[in-house]
Design a protein that fits this description.
globular; 3 helices; Glutaredoxin; alpha+beta; about 100 residues
Length: about 100
């Protein structure tokens, strides 16, 4: 099972969440739903080099995927999902440029 860290208010997360509805191969963990989920994500983000690029540009690093082997990716295509098209509107970056 692939753990998928998301946040309900993130447009990128919402886009990929719709693709996995009812799919038992994905476990959705909303980091905004409970502080326990947020702490689990922050522990991963603080210790895994997969987040280095996201942190360097000020991104949160969601959606994030943890594969069954423990490897981490921030790229939806790596787990067979389509990322949200860049020209689809809403953005969650402070400067409005992306998520």
């Amino acid at each position: 099972m692939i753990k998928m860290f998301v946040m309900h208010t993130c447009p990128d997360c919402e886009y990929v969440e719709k693709q996995v509805e009812g799919n038992p191969d994905f476990e959705i963990i909303d980091i905004g739903k409970h502080v326990r989920n947020l702490k689990q994500f922050l522990n991963l983000r603080d210790s895994n080099p997969s987040f280095d690029e996201a942190k360097a540009i000020g991104d949160v690093g969601i959606p994030c995927y943890v594969r069954e082997d423990g490897s981490v990716t921030l790229y939806s295509k790596d787990v067979g999902l389509e990322p949200r098209p860049e020209n689809l509107g809403a953005a969650c970056s402070i400067d409005g440029s992306g998520c």
